[in-house]
Protein 1
Amino acid sequence: MSSSNDSVPANQDYRQNIGQGSWPGIVRIIVLEILLLIALAGAFVYYLNWSSEAALADFMAASRSSQAVHAPCDPVVWI
């Protein structure tokens, strides 16, 4: 059996190796997160553009129909 003193340096080496070998993984995750945020921002801008065009089309259709329905009328004269 090994004593507890033998496992301490191995444990410290393991922790040091984790910190040194994980940088490419960390960079990869950060790049993926940035790409995901850019994709979400693009989708949000596309949605805003689409919804504003739809709202404008509805507004224009409503204004056209309201002009066709309302005919000019004579003013009401109160006696």
Protein 2
Amino acid sequence: MDMKSIAKVLLASMALLPFAQLIAQDEKDFSLTPLTDDLYHFRGGTGGNHFGTVLVTDEGIVVVDTVEPKSARWLKDELARRFDQPVKYVVFSHSHYDHIGGSNLFKEAGAIIVAQENAEAEILEEERTQQWLSKRDIALPEIAFGDKFIIKIGGKTVNLISLGPGHTESLIVVHFVEDRVIHLVDVASIKQVGFMTLGRPIKQYILQLQKAMALDFDVVVPGHAELGNRQDVQNYIDYLTALVSQVESSIKDGKTLEETQQSLLVSMQDFKFLKRWDEWFLLNVAGVYVQIADGSAGD
């Protein structure tokens, strides 16, 4: 099967997504719930399927990912209602518009925007982010760092660590040291298989995940899935590693996409405990197959 035919298969498969997943995008469900005494899990975005993290101290508040404008307005009002502290810092996990929308609301109120040094260029290059930027819904970073930046506030340490190239050049992991929590978005699909056809370059995703695993944490806050722990992150690394390896072997053996999908349905049964297997596993296989075949999977 040539690459054009494979692309048609991917598009056809994506069209089969349940209608309920589409209509769910019209619903909103925002919340701010405690993870520890001073760390909170922020839920917002389309269908309540985007997540941020908020640290509240007696020296001010740190927000990681404002998500999108409506969510950001709700969060700003909620923080003002519940806590008598200003937002000192807003941290971007990376440059994608659905994680940093509404950030300008906090900047206008005095917060400092912090991001990895590649974020600004990516924001200015991405069309959807540009649209929100033109509406003053997104703020550009005021502090840009390379490999690492440390925020010390209210007796707490927040380490911002670049994960290198992969899911954007600006992706970071945010480590709340004393709370033993990390905020790790988009590369980490917690307790489920990856989203649809996965991102690229998939091998770089694995390296980013492995770098995050080197940190000392108990809880992971992903960008689009439920909370998890160290083992959940390791499970996803193991899943992606097996997926890439088996697809590579299948292509070397001359198997088509369909043959590879049917083969891996059997050989990867050990990972069937992951949620959304029936919805997305074959799409995961197809996405990796295309990347391996066209050389875009990374090193």
